[in-house]
Amino acid sequence: MIEIRNLSKIYKTKNGHVKGVDNVSLTIQEGEIYGIVGYSGAGKSSLLRCINLLERPTSGGITVGGIDLTSLKDGDLRLARLKIGMIFQHFYLISQKTVFENIAFSLKAAKTPPGKIKNRVEDLLEMVGLADKRDVYPSQLSGGQKQRVGIARALANNPNVLLCDEATSALDPTTTKSILNLLKKINKELNITIILITHEMNVVKEICDRMAIMQEGRVIEEGRVYDIFATPQEELTKEFIESVVSFEMPEVILNKCKGTIVKVLFRGEVAGEGVISDTLQQFNVKGNFLHGSIEYIQESPLGIFVMELKGENEEIEKALQFIKNRSAQVEVLRDGV
Ligand SMILES: Nc1ncnc2c1ncn2[C@@H]1O[C@H](COP(=O)(O)OP(=O)(O)OP(=O)(O)O)[C@@H](O)[C@H]1O
């Protein structure tokens, strides 16, 4: 378990103090994939770098697996850090060393007996699918392959935690997917807790169990990814969700609709369409679908429909109540005109 307690990071610059992280407290469970989302400057990297003490927090504490990292002296901190791997957006491989040597470098730094290095590197290369690239140099690799080397290097010393700093932001969508699948595999097979920071909500939707949204150094919302997608509370959270699940409708379409426009959200296994068709049968209202999709978040369906309901006000009220009782959320986007 990772516990971040009242953590603040203040940078002293020549123009004054800048608050990178402002009193953040989070608990991340063992084996979880946890996403931290925010726009540029929100404080994500500062927070991530405080977790392994690449940055010393100005105040607050970090406990990883029961060890309070902020209280450790240099030697003990170095040892504790070996159990926290990290990967980066720009990979940071050593260009003069081969793939094998890049990974071996981590093992040598941790004083692994020389006789054990070869097998370990080969196992790691196998795990990340790069056995055939053992002797090539980073410049001969694609971005996705470079990140695989980064991952192998981060896993070299059997960490319990993997920190991912915008690990897929420099990659195309297909490569991003393959790296996310690799991270999922590592999380499941090695039971490594993963914390990733990203500005891409689709990354979080794809692999995270829980997430936090950061703004101006603070965590403004936190919870299970599914719940956050289903019922976001903060405007910024809604904005991030709309970047992957958009229900914007062209004005011309809205202007044509004279009925009540509602957005309905169905969670889990509830068959949304069934509820809607029951509503239309039981009440004297006409329905017109404007938008609809079923998003799968961690394989759980989340159905979101936007529709126009037409009829007498009283019937519409009854229909809305009926839907409300059978759905996760109903929001009237616009009353009938
Ligand atoms: N070394 C530093 N010195 C001074 N200010 C810093 C330093 N590092 C970060 N900051 C400031 O702290 C705030 C948070 O920055 P941080 O890099 O953590 O945000 P971020 O969400 O990771 O953004 P990005 O994705 O652009 O890196 C910003 O205002 C930034 O300018």
TrEMBL record:
Range of residues in the leader sequence: none
UniProt-listed Gene3D superfamilies: 3.30.70.260, P-loop containing nucleotide triphosphate hydrolases
Keyword flag Magnesium: no
Stored InterPro entries: AAA+_ATPase, ABC_transporter-like_ATP-bd, ABC_transporter-like_CS, ACT-like_dom_sf, MetN_ABC, MetN_ABC_transporter-like, NIL_domain, P-loop_NTPase
Superkingdom per UniProt: Bacteria
One Gene Ontology CC term in the entry: plasma membrane
Keywords from the named record: Amino-acid transport, ATP-binding, Cell membrane, Membrane, Nucleotide-binding, Translocase, Transport
Family named by the database record: Belongs to the ABC transporter superfamily.
Protein's UniProt name: Methionine ABC transporter ATP-binding protein
Organism of derivation: Metabacillus arenae
